[in-house]
Structures are given as C-alpha cells and as structure tokens.
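Board notes (copied after class):
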Amino acid sequence: MNELKLRDDILDELAYEPIVDPVHIGVAVDQDVVTLTGHVGSYAQKLAALSAVRRVRGVHGIADEIEVRNSSDKKMADDEVAKRAINVLSWDSVIPSNAIQVTVRDGLVTLTGKVNWFYQKSSAERDIRRLSGVRSVVNNIEIEPHAKPDNVKRKIEAALKRQAEIEAKDIRVTVRDGDEVLLEGKVRNWDEKFSVSNAAWSAPGVKNVKDKLTVES
C-alpha cells in the first residue's frame, strides 16, 4: 500500500476513535511499519490510539513512542495511585482476593502475583489502565492453572474451528511440555490475531502462549 495513503487512513481512524484526541499524535509510515509520537492525556487514550491503528488495513508493525501526560499537568503521587489500584482490584469480582500485588514508580504500575486463568490476569490490567495517574502498566502476573492440561492441542483447534471470525486452516498449534502453546501461521487482521490468542489462553491448563502469528498483507 502507498505510504501516504496508509498514513491518511491511520489519521482518519484516529480521528474516528471517540476516546482519542489525535491533535498531539504524530504518525510516520515506513513501508508497513507505523511510528506514533506525541502525547495523550491518559494511558487509556494511548491504548485506544494503538488499537485504532491496528484496525487499519496494511499496518504490520507499530513503534509506540506516545507519552502519557496528565491533562491537569499535575503528577499524582505514587502512593495515591497504588491505593486506587488496590481498591479497584478488590472490587473486581473475577480476581481472587489478595492474589495480586501492586508496585508504582513514577506512574509505572507493575502487577505481580498468581491467578488461575488468563482472563483474571487481563481483567486486572484493564482495571488499572483506566485509573488517572497511570502512565504505563507492566503485567507480571503468573498463570497457575487449577486444572491439569488434557488434550490441549485438540481443544484449541476445535475452538478455532468453532469461531466464525477465524480462518483456522492457516494456523498451526504446537503444545510444549503439556502447558505451553506456540501459535504460528497467518491471520487476516489484528482482530483475528487477538481472537486466536484468546482461544489458546482459554484452554484449561495453559500456562503460557507464544504468539508468532503474522498479519497478511
């Protein structure tokens, strides 16, 4: 795709995304790799901008250089961010009580601990993303499944075939040591890539997923 056309499509998609104010976001395109620069008012806006760019056809890689600057220009104290993070995690009914630890430094929130399912790990990160004062999130929560892995490859392949948005024939699933899944092959877009990874994580007993899927041109 023509680089100028791809850049125009990205700018249009950023403008179309209601959460994002694209005024302070810069977009540069080198072949099919997009570099985003500038700043936004919250971490949630940064993630929304990245998601919008992934939706654009022709984008194969993103270099993220967007900074998060609080709209009030006032830096929230790390201890206040930590207190809010602990509170919001305690209100989330899908997360086991006291399973996750929070560390905050200069607005960077690091999550540690152990949960049984990937959706619990993802839910914790989503909770923190929305908090004011958060500049970035590092999710180091470990998955310790309560179920033993059983026929993981077969269950994942069956799940891929059931989902209408996934073209399963171009995807290879390899299971290592019974609980680590390797995904290889091609998908049509970023949404399909996410759906395949999510299907793999949803198999009982899976502790880790290595996603090496590539997006088609």
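Comment from the instructor: The chain has six helices and eleven strands. The mean pLDDT is 89.
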